[in-house]
Each structure stands twice: as C-alpha cells, then as structure tokens.
User: Which sequence fits this backbone?
C-alpha cells in the first residue's frame, strides 16, 4: 500500500533555496516539489493534505551531538532514548547522532552493542552513533576500520576528563593516523584536562566551591591551547578534525587560522554558548549548577565571536550536546564541591526554535539557519541528502514551522525528562507545528502522534566535506 501526503502553500526553506512550493511525499520519501498553484501541483492527490499557508516548510533538524542515558559522575543522563527522541521531535529535530562509549579495558564493539541495545525499539525519530574512543591500543585501531565499514564513521576523543575519557597526545595521534587511512572523522573535546585538574584542586583548597568556579577553572586559554594542539596533531596525521562544543573567542580564532591555511578542520558550537553566559553560572544559591557543562559557559562577550564564526562558516554546525541531569538529586551531588556537579545541559527540544530566534534577531539568515541545523550536520556525518534537505528522493523528514507563533520556554511545558529548563522564561518567536519523520506524522498540530520504535538506526557514509 503506497501512502501519499501533500503539504500545500508553505515557503519551503532549505540551505540553498527559498521557494513557495507544494511538497509531494510518497512512501516515506519526498517525491516532488512544484510551485504552489501550478497545474502540476494542483493535480496531486493524496490521503493526507497539510495546509502550510503562512508557514515555513523546512527539513527536520539533525542534532549531531546528544548523550541519551550517558553514565557520568556516578549517575546517568535523565533522558532515555525514548524520552529524548520524543522531545527532539517536539522541537523539530528528526535525526539525532548519539555517542556510544568505549569503557577503558573494553572493546569498541562492546560499547557499540551496549548503545544499540539502549536505543533499538525505543526511538521516536531516526538515530545514528558516533563512537567515543577511551582506550587507544592496537586492537582498538583495527576496530575503527571495521566500524567505518559498517557506518559508524566518526570517533570522539577527549583531551579533558583524566581518568575517565582522557587520551594523551600519543593516543590521539595514533587514532588520527588511523582515521586518515580509513576515512573516519575524529571529533575532539578540546580542553587541557591535565591543567584544569590542577586548577580545580587549587580552587577547592581555597574554599572556592560554588558552581561559578567551574567556569573559572576551565579557562578559555586552555580550550584554545587544546584546540591548537588538536589541529597540529591532525595536521601531522594528515587527518580531518571536528572540534565539538566550541565556546571561546580564542578557540574560534584557532579554527579560523587553520581553515584559512586550507586545513580540513571543522567546528561546532551549541545554543547554550550563543544564548547563556557565566551570568547564569553565578546565579545565587546553588542555581548556577543547572548551567554546569563542559566546555563551560563563557562571559557574554564571547557570543559575538561565535555568531561571526557561524556567519563566516568558520563554525559549520550547531548541535546541542544534550546531556540532561535533574537539578534535584543529580546536579545536587555537587553541593559544596563544584567538581562533583554532573556536566551537561538539556537542549535537544530547544535548538531549532532558538536558532529561529537568531534569524528574528538578525544574527543569521533563514537559509543559514537550515544550513547549520540540518544540512551541514547531515553532510558532516555522511547522511546527506537522505537527511538535511527537502528534495526528490530525500527522506520525508519535514517540519511545518510557524514563524509568527510566540512561546515562552519553560520546564512546565517542555518534553525533556528533566526538572528545569536552561532557558526558563525566555520568550521566543517561532514554533514547530507539525513534524513528519519518513512521511509519518510524529507531531500533528502540536499533538504527539509518534511512537517509540518508529525511529530506525542510520548507518552513515564518511564526511561529505572531504574531497
């Protein structure tokens, strides 16, 4: 049985075009686009017609950095794959790429199998995996080749978190050399964790225990230093590099220099760095704990550099690094010692809306919104044009978006499984109305009509920005 849907009367916005067009969807894929009101469009018949008059019709968002059910600091991220992907759908995101974790002493395969078991049958939208490499050895390096062949084509390493995820420069170089051969992409958490640990110890010894000191010890210069070092190691290895959650002016400058020199270096930032700051970390009482993440929030003046980087394409992607921990019972583990506050913020539901607000505010254009939130992450991680655009043959991951609706972000109304919003009380313009995932309605006029298990696993090709 074939099923057809027509979306009529909207402004179709992709990374490359804006066109008043109707969209024909057949059997889960985009079948055709035709200018609204033309004979070709009028001739289409379908079981389901969606009126998008006065609305945008945009590709489903691709959030290339989430951590559902991540174990961290003696607890677990509070969103499961079921709750997290449902919240993603509410926010207009139809694809997530989560991080499978290799534990030290275990194989990549064991980590990947564990994450497949968490996600399979539970996701409301489609999903893929990156692989966190915590234990570089000869066996791990061989396994990287096998994972690339089966569609896990990106590997995350950490210059931070000694004793947990940390890799030293030699391990990083070996993994980069391997990815240069097998086509994988190394994703780097670039902070000098060894130096940061010294500063943490010294701060606590001085009695500086409040959440705001989390931001003070994780210095922008140590993010910049690690970013510079990662770029040079990648250059030595002849490998591409993707730096995650860039937060500091000085780190953007390192990426810009490398890209100006013609290196295959890419950068991602997140909404929290664009919209929040150390002012939040310094909120009175223990409220600042809600905003503890790594890299940390920076003083507000860093935001201009991040917006500029997004406009000049020195930063290509906005992901969320969604890693929620409830304030009650989880963030509170760090009362009296900021180093014990679980690192992470909720945000998978808010990204598309906050970036639309950036369009309203004049930071970016409509097409750039779709580029950084949909098309670029899909290209970066080998999913384009299946994901990230609206074009014949693409998956029918389509969002009808009301650019005029106003909403107030709040924990009282969001769908993430966490007891606070990082953007509580923020008024924004623009809201998701209807979401299709492979042609199936997941959100229908602000009602959840999806189901756990609809989302399928996505094997990925290699980074499409590399020649």
Assistant:
């Amino acid at each position: 049985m074939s099923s057809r849907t027509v979306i009529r009367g909207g402004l179709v916005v992709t990374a490359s075009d804006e066109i008043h067009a109707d969209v024909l969807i057949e059997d889960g894929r985009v079948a055709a686009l035709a200018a609204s009101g033309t004979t070709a469009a009028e001739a289409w018949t379908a079981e389901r017609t969606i009126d998008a008059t006065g609305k945008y019709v945009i590709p489903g968002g691709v959030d290339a950095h989430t951590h559902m059910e991540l174990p961290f600091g003696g607890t677990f991220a509070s969103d499961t794959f079921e709750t997290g992907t449902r919240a993603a759908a509410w926010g207009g995101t139809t694809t997530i790429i989560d991080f499978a974790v290799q534990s030290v002493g275990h194989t990549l395969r064991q980590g990947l199998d564990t994450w497949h078991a968490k996600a399979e049958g539970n996701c409301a939208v489609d999903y893929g995996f990156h692989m966190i490499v915590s234990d570089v050895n000869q066996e791990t390096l061989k396994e990287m080749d096998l994972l690339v062949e089966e569609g896990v084509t990106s590997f995350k390493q950490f210059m931070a978190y000694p004793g947990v995820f940390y890799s030293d420069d030699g391990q990083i170089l070996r993994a980069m050399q391997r990815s240069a051969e097998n086509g994988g992409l190394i994703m780097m958490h670039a902070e000098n964790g060894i130096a940061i640990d010294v500063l943490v110890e010294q701060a606590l010894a001085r009695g500086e225990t409040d959440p705001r000191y989390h931001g003070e010890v994780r210095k922008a210069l140590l993010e910049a230093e690690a970013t510079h070092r990662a770029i040079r190691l990648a250059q030595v290895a002849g490998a591409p590099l993707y730096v995650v959650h860039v937060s500091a002016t000085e780190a953007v400058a390192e990426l810009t220099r490398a890209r100006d020199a013609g290196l295959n270096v890419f950068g991602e930032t997140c909404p929290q760095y664009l919209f929040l700051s150390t002012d939040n970390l310094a909120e009175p009482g223990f409220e600042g704990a809600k905003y503890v993440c790594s890299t940390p929030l920076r003083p507000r003046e860093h935001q201009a550099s991040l917006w500029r980087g997004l406009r000049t394409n020195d930063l290509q992607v906005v992901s969320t690094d969604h890693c929620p921990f409830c304030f009650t019972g989880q963030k509170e583990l760090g009362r009296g010692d900021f180093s014990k506050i679980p690192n992470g913020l909720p945000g998978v539901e808010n990204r598309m809306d906050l970036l639309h607000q950036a369009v309203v505010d004049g930071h970016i254009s409509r097409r750039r919104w779709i580029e950084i939130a949909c098309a670029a992450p899909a290209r970066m991680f080998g999913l384009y044009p299946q994901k990230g655009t609206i074009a014949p043959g693409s998956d029918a991951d389509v969002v009808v978006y009301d650019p005029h609706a106003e909403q107030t972000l709040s924990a009282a109304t969001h769908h993430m499984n966490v007891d606070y919003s990082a953007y509580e009380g923020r008024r924004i313009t623009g809201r998701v109305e209807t979401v299709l995932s492979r042609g199936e309605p997941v959100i229908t006029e602000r009602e959840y009509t999806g189901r756990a298990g609809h989302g399928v696993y996505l094997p990925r090709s290699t980074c499409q920005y590399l020649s």
Remarks:
- Residues 104 and 166 are 10 Å apart (CA to CA).
- The mean pLDDT is 97.
- Residues 220-237 form the longest helix (18 residues).
